[in-house]
Design goal:
Two copies of one chain form a homodimer. Chain A contains eight helices and nine strands. Chain A is of the alpha/beta class. In chain A, the strands form two sheets. In chain A, strands 3-2-1-5-6 form a five-stranded parallel beta sheet, sandwiched between helices. Chain A has a three-stranded antiparallel beta sheet with strand order 7-8-9, with helices on one face. In chain A, strand 8 and strand 9 form a beta hairpin. The radius of gyration of chain A is 19 Å and the shape is globular. Strand 4 of chain A pairs antiparallel with strand 4 of chain B.
Chain lengths: 267, 267
């Protein structure tokens, strides 16, 4: 892949990357379709990156469907499906860390997660030789981490965010939704409902972040809440009052499944 | 610089980088001259990178000579002299770490040093858009750290090592030699003398690393020795017996000045 991408660059081809962990759904497909018209070579990577999983997380049972992924990629117009057994060379010993935007929200509940993300994404940029890469806004904090890393290291990659895709009932698409029992799925809907309720409350004139969070919490039916917060969309610092750009982010466990969701609040 | 280098790359120009901390001497000039014939745009960076200095090190008094540096760069055929007041954007919060090759030798005596080096070099690669970069073999461990980082992150940069340059009396050229009093300079010569003596001993049939180190130590006239070791040139792991590639590395303090040197042992 490294040799191939270097050759394409010599031929002045524009390479685009869609990094994924596989088990592709319509959210991923929307990212591929969004990038497709803008690049000459479209690379989709499917790699369940062990570096970004904690010791008690779901690395071993993370859902996989290589044949289905290959079909979805082909149908959406992928040029290269990069599906390595191992992405790291023998003796791999480099890591990329981003401070600040990684310390709160998911970073507080998943120590080492964003270091694993930054490291794999940095390497995938290098391997694919991409000039542009697209990431789903479902993983909002991840998108900010990658934007920060790319700016800080002056990596020659344009970062694009792709809109979150939902099922008809409002559930944010996630490969992890495959874990949910029918009852759990009903309760999982409370994440998006809580966020919609917060938007409605802002539209109704409620601008106090603490009271908005209270409104959302009353709706949540998770077994364990990691966080429900109103933050600045880029710095991810808490916002006390909605008087500028703000986003509500939520993470919680339904059964054994950890789910996240987020929405922009009206500004 | 970022915009300029991106434009050069669109024009298919080959960009080369010589990263330095300034106060340029013949060693730096030899790197510029070695790279010059191979690139279309030659960038020399002069930046005393605070990230790679410990709290009790010589950041504040590190020697500077911007006018002399500019002249030396121009004379050696530099296209761009990148001499920023600050290299990092506001809110910079990313770091690159290399494990393994950074833990021993200078890494053990300068905690955080190689993280600072890896981070600045990664950013300089991005800013300059270089396809090739040259580093002096004087900083042998640094060269291995950068090779490892570049391979691990699949950075699109070829790493070249440039031979160490010595004064006629054998002293390895270093900007820090400017700190030395005449007496200190005499004692500083013991570093290269110790290494030469070790080479001679190998040629005389001594293949035991511990005895070679003993031989070198007897010659050293430093005020404090950080290390004198025989290691594998790439992994930097200690070598017990000279039966393959091996290199002797030394670091010690003469007065307030920390000096390093290294030589390949005959194999």
């Amino acid at each position: 892949m490294i040799e191939q991408s270097r050759a394409w660059k010599r031929e002045k081809m524009r390479i685009g990357l869609v990094p994924t962990m596989g088990y592709l759904h319509r959210g991923h497909v929307s990212l591929i379709e969004a990038l497709r018209p803008h690049v000459d070579q479209l690379v989709v990577s499917v790699y369940v990156n062990p570096l970004q999983f904690g010791p008690n997380e779901d690395l071993a049972r993370y859902p996989r469907d290589p044949d289905g992924d290959a079909k979805r990629c082909a149908d959406a117009g992928t040029d290269v499906l990069l599906m390595p057994e191992d992405l790291y060379p023998s003796g791999f010993s480099t890591s990329v860390s981003v401070h600040g935007v990684t310390e709160r929200l998911c970073g507080a509940f998943r120590p080492g997660h964003f270091e694993g993300v930054a490291t794999v994404v940095c390497r995938l940029f290098g391997v694919s030789g991409c000039e542009v890469a697209i990431f789903g806004e479902k993983d909002w904090q991840q998108l900010q981490v990658i934007r920060r890393m790319t700016r800080d290291l002056a990596l020659p990659v344009e970062i694009v965010g792709g809109p979150l895709v939902r099922d008809a009932d409002g559930l944010a698409l996630s490969s992890r939704n495959a874990y949910l029992s029918p009852d759990e799925r009903q309760r999982a809907l409370s994440l998006s409902r809580a966020l919609y309720a917060m938007i409605e409350a802002v539209n109704g004139g409620e601008l106090d972040a603490a009271r908005l969070v209270e409104r959302g919490r009353a709706i949540l039916q998770v077994d364990r809440l990691d966080y429900l917060e109103v933050v600045h969309p880029e710095t991810l610092e808490p916002v006390a009052r909605i008087d500028g750009p703000a986003r509500a982010l939520v993470a919680g466990h339904v059964g054994r499944t950890r789910l996240i969701d987020n929405m922009a609040l009206p500004g």
